[in-house]
């Protein structure tokens, strides 16, 4: 039987998991790339926002004295320290809008300040960037005079910001993306398991239907609506298969039954006909073979018709005795020795007595026909078991798998048997939920057939 698993090559679960993994990898890679690009510009964006905030704060510290000179005084010590200590990197100047003259600078030595030198007189309002310098111009009004406040920052502060921010952002981004991807994979795996579980359930249920259980149907309870059409189609197919199989069995049974009378009439006419002995013997042999095939076809039809079985406690020792008495005369014909051994006293099973007799009869006939002259054949009964062993030539290992096939014979060119005996045995064994085990070479040198009825054993009074 084929086992359905998530890791099996070509399985739906495997394909879905690979698809989830690939799509998840692509999506998270794109998110990571976007966040990385954002992190690269994060420091510049942060500086731009801070420059806007400083440009808005500077006018609060501007005032004109009595002589009309513009002065700057900041109560923010940290901000003042930044201008004094980093004046070559962060600087501002104030321009009178009416005269376009510079009336105040954060560094009186303009020629030594790279930041101030990067602030042209025609600087546009708002944020701009040129030659590695971040610039910002804001129009303000101080004591009724219209002014421009120009703020500049060179790359040193930006590099410091990038050096401080980017490693931290990279670590956070990496850990976040790896954790999110692992969570995505776990959620995808659980989701896929939940998706394919109904598929596996239906497959296992379908795989468990044996040829003798064609009346079984797939359970639709809990099946997703997307799978219902498939389950319904499979059930409809099983209906058609069961119908066709029943028609085939009826045809075989009817044909075999109809052939019995013509064969009997033919045998009678042959016996009354005045034919040479050699021809009459050959024709009688052919008629006997055809009669045997017809009888076994009827036995096979009965074995397959489990509805006609009457299951009740059956003493398998009595079954073995009846069969041995029935076939006793054949031991003389085939020159064999037949023995019955009872391992346990009065072993009983739940089953159909007529079917069990047919089963054991075919097993014993098989041993009688194929063992050499003088071979020993033993029928052994025990609690929940019937065994037939012989001291014949045994069975080749390569023939074991073909033993229970219909119409298979070891010597296909001969008419020593119909090839239906062991097929009938297999049908009866399956109908009783039993198990048959074949030992190709036993201690006697021949073959042994064990039939086990573990689930149908009737407890004895002593147990």
Automatic annotation (TrEMBL):
* InterPro entries membership: HAMP_dom, HATPase_C_sf, HATPase_dom, His_kinase_dom, HisK_dim/P_dom, HisK_dim/P_sf, Sig_transdc_His_kin-like_C, TCS_sensor_his_kinase
Molecular function as annotated in GO: kinase activity
State the reactions this protein catalyses: ATP + protein L-histidine = ADP + protein N-phospho-L-histidine
Keywords, alphabetical: Kinase, Membrane, Phosphoprotein, Transferase, Transmembrane, Transmembrane helix, Two-component regulatory system
Pfam families linked: HATPase_c (PF02518), HisKA (PF00512)
Kindly give the membrane topology term recorded for this protein. Answer: Multi-pass membrane protein
Where are the membrane-spanning stretches?
A: 16-40, 172-192
EC number(s) stated in the UniProt entry for this protein: 2.7.13.3
Domain (Histidine kinase): give its ranges. Answer: 254-457
What is this protein's name?
A: histidine kinase
Q: Name its species.
A: Pseudoalteromonas obscura
């Amino acid at each position: 039987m084929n086992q359905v698993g998530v890791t099996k090559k070509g399985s739906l679960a495997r394909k879905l998991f690979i698809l989830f993994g690939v799509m998840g990898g692509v999506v998270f890679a794109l998110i990571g790339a976007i966040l990385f690009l954002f992190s690269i510009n994060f420091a510049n964006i942060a500086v731009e926002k801070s420059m806007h905030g400083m440009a808005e704060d500077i006018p609060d510290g501007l005032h004109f004295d009595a002589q009309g000179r513009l002065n700057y005084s900041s109560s923010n010590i940290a901000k003042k320290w930044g201008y004094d200590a980093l004046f070559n990197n962060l600087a501002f100047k104030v321009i009178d809008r009416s005269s376009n003259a510079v009336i105040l600078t954060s560094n009186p030595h303009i020629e030594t300040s790279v930041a101030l030198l990067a602030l042209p007189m025609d600087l546009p309002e708002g944020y701009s960037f040129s030659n590695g310098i971040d610039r910002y111009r804001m129009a303000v009004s101080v004591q009724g005079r219209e002014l421009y406040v120009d703020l500049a920052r060179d790359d040193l502060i930006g590099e410091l910001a990038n050096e401080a921010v980017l490693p931290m952002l990279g670590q956070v981004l990496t850990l976040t993306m790896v954790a999110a991807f692992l969570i995505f994979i776990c959620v995808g795996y659980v989701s896929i398991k939940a998706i394919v579980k109904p598929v596996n359930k239906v497959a296992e249920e379908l795989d468990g239907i044996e040829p003798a259980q064609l009346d079984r149907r797939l359970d639709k309870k809990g099946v997703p609506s997307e799978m219902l059409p498939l389950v319904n189609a499979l059930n409809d197919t099983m209906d058609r298969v069961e119908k066709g199989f029943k028609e085939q069995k009826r045809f075989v049974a009817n044909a075999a039954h109809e052939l019995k009378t013509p064969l009997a009439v033919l045998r009678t006419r042959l016996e009354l006909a005045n034919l040479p002995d050699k021809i009459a013997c050959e024709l009688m042999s052919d008629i006997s073979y055809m009669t045997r095939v017809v009888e076994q076809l009827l036995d096979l039809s009965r074995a397959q018709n489990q509805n006609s079985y009457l299951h009740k406690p059956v003493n398998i020792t009595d079954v073995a005795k009846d069969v041995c008495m029935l076939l006793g005369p054949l031991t003389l014909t085939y020159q064999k020795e037949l023995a019955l051994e009872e391992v346990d006293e009065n072993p009983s099973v739940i089953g159909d007595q007529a079917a069990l007799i047919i089963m054991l009869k075919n097993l014993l006939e098989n041993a009688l026909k194929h063992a050499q002259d003088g071979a020993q054949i033993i029928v052994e009964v025990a609690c929940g078991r019937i065994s037939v062993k012989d001291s014949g030539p045994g069975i080749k290992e390569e023939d074991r798998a073909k033993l229970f096939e219909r119409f298979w014979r070891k010597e296909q060119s001969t008419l020593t048997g119909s090839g239906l005996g062991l097929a009938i045995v297999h049908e009866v064994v399956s109908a009783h939920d039993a198990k048959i085990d074949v030992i190709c070479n036993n201690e006697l040198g021949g073959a042994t057939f064990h039939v086990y009825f573990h689930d149908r054993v009737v407890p004895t009074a002593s147990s």
